Amino acid sequence: MSNGKTVYLPAVCWVIAVITGLGLIAAALASGLGHPNTAAHVAANTLSLFGFFQAQAFIGLTAANLPPIVDSWTQDFQWSMGIIRVGFLQKLATWYQRSTGGTASTLLSTLSFKMVEVQRRSLEYIAQRNVPLLKRVVAASSDSIVVVRGIERVGFRANIEPTNIFMTGYSFFIIFVMFVVIFILLARAICLVLERSGKFENNSEKFSDLRNDWTVVMKGILFRVVGHSQTSIKTLNFSNKLV
Fold first, then answer.
1. What is this structure's pTM?
2. Is the pLDDT reported for residue 1 higher than 70?
3. What separation, in Å, do the N-terminal and C-terminal C-alpha atoms of the chain show?
């Protein structure tokens, strides 16, 4: 039951994601144009902001009784953990589990005869307040009620099966790494074309690192990406073991 009002809005997710992406792009451009100090400050502030987004997401992943507004607010930041629903990725994750001998959960496909209770002000808590009718309701429906907490709660609100949460987050991490590699290779190719066409002057400092030591640049970026994502991957892996 809901009154139709919530702070969990897709527009909020898109806006904060775009802000993070623009910050990283601005840092890359500043570095390439020969402003390393500016690039370092912009990149550091952007990563700090992204770390704040992940910290908000961690709060929503805890199996604690959160007020509904906190639950919905932290759901806006779950994209930073890679918890984003994409149809074919969900089918791929389910197929992978079944093909390797695992058992995929069917929580979302059994909603027609099961009631899923998102942990908040539960019926059990109200029944403890000496309401006889609710006590009988809770006792009669306990077999058909599934209570989702913590990471499972986040996955359910994102329409992701509990057993697919880790694979979803890990898949988006791999996709992001591939995107970074492709972006660097494309930028390197553009720099080579501009250099051969005479757009860069001799001994120009513009994009000098990318033109001369692009492999070092790629290794540095991947090192920072992997290091920054290590905590989120460990968190999702731990949730996968619990499920």
1. 0.73
2. no
3. 26
